[in-house]
Specification:
Layout (H helix, E strand, L loop, with lengths): L1 E7 L12 H10 L5 E13 L5 E3 H8 L4 E10 L8 E9 L3 E8 L14 E9 L2 E9 L5 H23 L19 E6 L7 H6 L11 E2 H5 L25 E6 L2 H4 E6 L11 E5 L8
Parallel strand pairs: 1-2, 8-9
Antiparallel strand pairs: 1-13, 2-3, 2-5, 4-5, 6-7, 7-8, 9-11, 10-11, 12-13
């Protein structure tokens, strides 16, 4: 079984206001030992550590998840207005499976006057699984602008379409160097904090068939738990940030042969180590149909 965990950790800030990456790691390992861990809202130099110095959460996570290779997908890389060092903010993928390739995708940010927004990004890795090569894409979409969110969803769909097109029309490659073969399997898991609601226009757009094909993303929850409402992934414990109460905005979407490998999606509803809840996707290493 291959396990993939996704969690918006809010810089490690719990609902009590304390910041602890150790607590984040403890919660994750209490859910099992995921093969791939996808985290959103991770920073370097943005917040202060206990000693009052800018915290390097990338180094902190690397120390806590030994045996995993860490990829930091930087969405925001900016100068400190106070004259300090640059700070970075984005998504992290930790993998204990062999990495075949890495791709970092800036997501569109069309201008929306008077709207607060930030630069967004998707971190893609291709890994070697017992079932074969697999792409995992970790992302965090815009919250404040629906226009930007729709544009970002379009780009995520394009990324999958490009993988499908390359399978049909493979590029010319060389044995070594920058033109060598780079794995880009169509078997894909897309996960993260999408800031969309189940059944919304944005959600439906993401699941539409990809241009010129019958292929599409599927919501892994609907495969693992058909006819069951999505359990909430935020607003469970933090009612200050989420006055609307518990609801779901974090998802796993799957494509290709992954659709038949989904076995379970689990949510830890008890932890208050972040304003979001961690989700764990379990996929079989073969692809027989679910009973």
């Amino acid at each position: 079984m291959t396990g993939i965990l996704s969690w918006n950790i809010q810089n490690g800030m719990g609902c009590d206001g304390g910041i602890s990456l150790t607590k984040i790691a403890d919660v994750i390992f209490n859910m099992g030992t995921p093969d791939i861990i996808c985290l959103q809202e991770v920073s370097r130099g943005l917040i202060l550590d206990d000693s009052g110095r800018p915290a390097d959460q990338i180094a902190g996570l690397a120390g806590l998840f030994q045996g995993y290779e860490l990829i930091f997908g930087v969405a925001v890389d900016a100068a400190d207005p106070a004259g300090g060092k640059r700070w970075q903010f984005g998504n992290v993928v930790l993998s204990r499976l062999p990495l075949l390739s890495v791709a970092l995708h800036p997501l569109p940010r069309p201008a929306v006057q008077g709207t607060r927004c930030m630069t967004r990004q998707a971190t893609e890795v291709a890994v070697s699984c017992p079932s074969g090569p697999l792409r995992v894409i970790n992302t965090h979409l815009e919250y404040h602008s629906r226009t930007q969110k729709l544009a970002q969803i379009d780009r995520l769909r394009e990324i999958q379409s490009e993988a499908l097109e390359e399978q049909v029309r493979p590029r010319r490659v060389e044995e070594t160097g920058p033109y060598q073969f780079v794995a880009r399997p169509v078997e894909a898991v897309l996960c993260g904090d999408f800031n969309i609601l189940h059944g919304s226009e944005e959600y439906d757009n993401l699941l539409e068939p990809l241009a010129g094909t019958k292929q599409r993303f599927h919501d892994a929850w609907n495969i693992a738990r058909p006819n069951c409402m999505h359990e909430p992934t935020c607003g469970v414990h933090d009612r200050r940030l989420w006055p609307q109460g518990p609801h779901c905005r974090d998802f796993f979407f799957v494509a290709g042969a992954c659709v038949d490998r989904v076995r379970a999606v689990r949510i830890d509803a008890a932890t208050d180590a972040s304003d979001h809840q961690p989700l764990l996707l379990e996929m079989a290493d073969d692809s027989p149909a679910i009973d």
